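Notebook, bench 3.
Goal today: get a predicted structure for Endonuclease/exonuclease/phosphatase domain-containing protein from Collichthys lucidus so we can plan the truncation constructs. The sequence was checked against the plasmid map this morning, with no discrepancies at the termini. Length recorded as 684 residues. Pasting the sequence as submitted so the record is complete.
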Amino acid sequence: MASLCSPPLSSPALSPPALSCPVCHMFSYSSSSFSDNGTCNKCSLFVALEARVSELEARFSPLSDTPAERPTLVIGSSIVRNVKLATPGAIVKCIPGARAGDIESFLKLLAKDKRRYSKIVIHVGGNDTRLRQSEVTKINVSSVCEYAKTMSDSVVFSGPLPNVTSDDMFSRMSSFHRWLSRWCPANDVGFIDNWTPFWGKPEQLPTQSFSIETVSVPRPPTLFKDKTNRRGVHHKNLIKIKSTSPTVKNKRIKCGLLNIRSLSSKAVLVNELISDYDIDLFCLTETWLQENEYVSLNESTPPSHYNTHIPRSTGRGGGVGAIFDSSLLINPKPKLNYNSFESLVLSLTHPTWKTLQPILFVTVYRAPGPYSEFLSEFAEFASGLILKTDKVIIVGDFNIHVDNHNNSLSTAFISLLDSIGFCQSVNKPTHCLNHTLDLVLSYGVEIDNLIVFPQNPLLSDHFLITFEFILLDYKPLCRNFYSRCLSDSAVAKFKETIPSVLNSMPCLTVTEDLSASFSPSQIDHLVDSITGSLRTTLDSIAPLKKKIIKQRRLAPWYSQQTRKLKQEARKSERKWRATKLEESHLVWQDNLRTYRKALRNARAAYYSSLIEENKNNPRFLFSTVARLTENHSSTEPSIPLGLSSNDFMSFFNDKIITIRDKIHTFCLQQALICILIQQVWKQL
């Protein structure tokens, strides 16, 4: 019976194939339930009906002279919450706490309506920056802009606001702003610069600023009605205290860069250059100094500055150095050995930066030659720096023509900087052959007021570069002293007041016999009382005034004669740059040589007179020689990490034993000499 109702198991080909609708995914074995296009009969009917309705709507839709104007879409995080545009039909979409990925997802929801916009303005990036993933943020921003282009022919990106809530956020926001200002024009995206208009104007920023990630719900107004609550507090009697934002003290650091090409013959000119331009940190490349050669470096250092340098390990030439203000807490880092370039790494710290990482300031010199090894080593070097801290400045002579975009080395180097996240700020020639060789690279630091000065033929064939950067929340460590203004009138008044002050003290009216019986403690009390009374009187007449010690001083050999020659050289330089005549150029160079010779003679005369005046003071002479020949670095002698207390004790123990042995040997020698002398006298 079963065999009559069902087909045999051995013949599966008799069962029809299973069919599925691609629209509603209906499953059926019957081919009659499907149309020729593969969809089920029901879905085919709905598709045909929808096409007919669309045809009728298009046929009988109301006609107009001009098409409807496309609206403008403004979309972003909570910063656009209260934005109101005068453009009719503008749409503002606020997504609190949104990141770039959230904006793209919302645009995809809007794209389902198949509606196009005349312009899309996007404000996002503040919340992405908090994730501390710069490269991921850039990729997400690029993605949301590319998707917005499918919905509008005009896409505009609104840049971030200047966030000064913390040093770390300011650095990241500033770096994101710089990247966005370059990326938008290069990718046909409009850019709204919010950084410059709102910088230094916190009163114009919205109260709910910088894209907060949570939505604050306002309290009901019933909580603040004019009545006494159950705790007995009457809100009308409370005083409203105005909240003030904490003031941030910033310090501008002025830096300089110059390829000096032998510092030995130009030390006095460098000294004067630092003082004239008021440079806090001056970087030198190609110093051509040897190991433990500090005479030229010390002569080029003003009295208020320190210096450090790293010579080339093998061969002649090369070398990098730095001269910096003594008020800056700068410490050189250990030397890093690379074959393709030389480097000097400085760490700028401050006691007030308890939770912030230091700023690394690096001076680099790359000699001309093959660049394959340099690219790999510099990539490793720069990547290691940004892993240690989030603020890095690299300056130096790279010998790369970054102004030549057809140069393979220049293209590879710029691509390397972009991949790591460094910003190159020099866009003018820095060499006499009109090439840009000296560069200023920054990571997480905003470079301001970069100036490339004209060439000075007496200094170098490279141009001087100066720039500034800001240190946030920096409190200078100033050394103070107190002084009194003891004028003639103050001294006369003090003399007049002394008798009345002394007569008012009862202990001074005792007789001489009674004072002879005073104990030492009574005498000490008497002296302290008189001293306190005199000091109080002096403070009332000539009080102590606090003054800050200013360290900036000119070189001691700078005189009126050298100042006059310098003015003449500057005057001839201005004349030559205005006329461009060869005669004026020769006059300028002649005045420069005269001024340079006068500086050398003044320096020699200064030290000659110093030695002559102190020829009977060997201590002063030795200290002067040490000041000229020893290192003037701010670093203190370091103690090896492996040194233990036992090693420290053994060192002094051995030293004492050595001294005792020497004393014992010396005494034995003296005793033998005395015995020999006595024997000789006996024989005589």
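Residues 334 and 345 are 8 Å apart (CA to CA). Residues 1-15, 62-67, 207-228 have pLDDT under 50 and may be disordered.
Flagging this for group meeting.
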